[in-house]
Amino acid sequence: MSIKNCFILFFLLVSSKIYSQNSTKKLFHIDKYLVTSNGKNFEYIKEIEDYDSDKKKYPIKIYYKSGKIYLIGTTLNKDKVILDGNCLYYYENGKRKRLANYENNILINKQYYYHENGVLKLESEFEVSKNKKESTLKILNYFDENNVQKVTNGEGEYVEEGWNDQTSTGTIKNFLKEGIWRGHLIGKKVSFTEQYNKGKLVVGHSLDSLNNKFTYNVVNERAHPKKGMNDFYNYLKKNDIIPKNINGKITGKIIINIDINENGKLENVSAYIGDQYGITENAIQLISQYENWIPGKHRGVNVKTHLTLPIVFQ
């Protein structure tokens, strides 16, 4: 066993010992999507305070595998991470990474990002529509690692960094992306060029390592059933997802986690919390047999997608 793994085990054992003396705190393994997972496949460790109480909000801390703090904030649900209010993120070296503001897991208002050396990196702001279905990201000020300001009051050149080691560079005009932007998905070995007008993507073109070309007008597309969600839910209903002996006698909701790979194949179907009626187990079995999926896309390229599906029975 490596020193790192020994430390992780030590952290969990010590934490379990401490928290066994205080039943109001509970620990969970969670994956990179912050969804509860098993002890083998996890990226972080989640700690919920006041878990045994019934509250509108719960203090939450999330740790790296190393035991270093990753996030401090509040969640609206003790079993599912639904961030609300101010949340502070940290690099694994202990320096602050980001100060974010959420409302029901949606980013709102001012956001602050920091370079790993502690220098302020970005001041941005989300404007959310009245129906809360759309949001506009405004770039206010941006600094490089040497504290040289590149965007001032919504004007300048900006380097955007995202998940999967992707970067893109372009012009910010009146707080929004404008004109031609160029970037790379380093992990996927994909380059892309995008055209923006007042912050809206007009068209994008990407090129992978095999010179396959893709055109898109939406940066992210979620995986979905080939015949649509209605067909998927009708399939579950038709195949008696709820055992006949209890159908109509109970109400509730279960949450199913699904991973769909780049080829549209199901890789994992699971649920952390089960039920005493066998509904969760039956749902996992039925969903695992439903294979007609269209994979998710990022900048026109197929990517592995994680879905969280609520199933309500009443």
UniProtKB/TrEMBL annotation:
InterPro entries: TonB_C. Pfam families: TonB_C (PF03544). It comes from the Bacteria. Residues 249-313 form the TonB C-terminal domain. SUPFAM superfamilies: Histone H3 K4-specific methyltransferase SET7/9 N-terminal domain, TolA/TonB C-terminal domain. This is Energy transducer TonB. It comes from Flavobacterium polysaccharolyticum.
